[in-house]
Amino acid sequence: MLRVNVICQGRLKEPYYIAACGEYLKRLGAYCKAEATELPEDGDVAARIPKGAYVIALCIEGEKLSSPALAAKLEKLAGQGVSRICFLIGGSDGLPESVKAAADYRLSMSDMTFPHHLARVMLLEQLYRAFTITAGTKYHK
Questions:
Q1: Domain that holds residue 120
Q2: Is residue 15 over pLDDT 80?
Q3: What predicted TM-score, i.e. pTM, was given to this entire model?
Q4: Residue 76 burial by CB count (10 A; 0-12/13-18/19+): exposed, middle or buried?
């Protein structure tokens, strides 16, 4: 089963963000082994990346994908033998350039800027959507 880890700088404090992330992590459990790792705002993201993981850094200069394209990318990676994917979300200042440079792929959600706490919820929802697209369920319309 594919392992997906979302490593985030900054801790969630708002109950609605915590609830939303918890809900999507629970839903993802049907499709993969998903977890979110919180670090302090200035935490060392690179030190928490699991060895051998395919690393996707979320940053505004990354590639924008539709939901079906994200599903296809995840499916392709799994088909190539990738067993662990690690998504990185920076804090309010974003990810360090060295972390983005070392990533296997850079992904952008939009040209717009979102709070990093909301970006976590959005990423987890999009991951859930991607897995449901691949599984052919009715969640994605």
A1: 3-135
A2: yes
A3: 0.95
A4: exposed
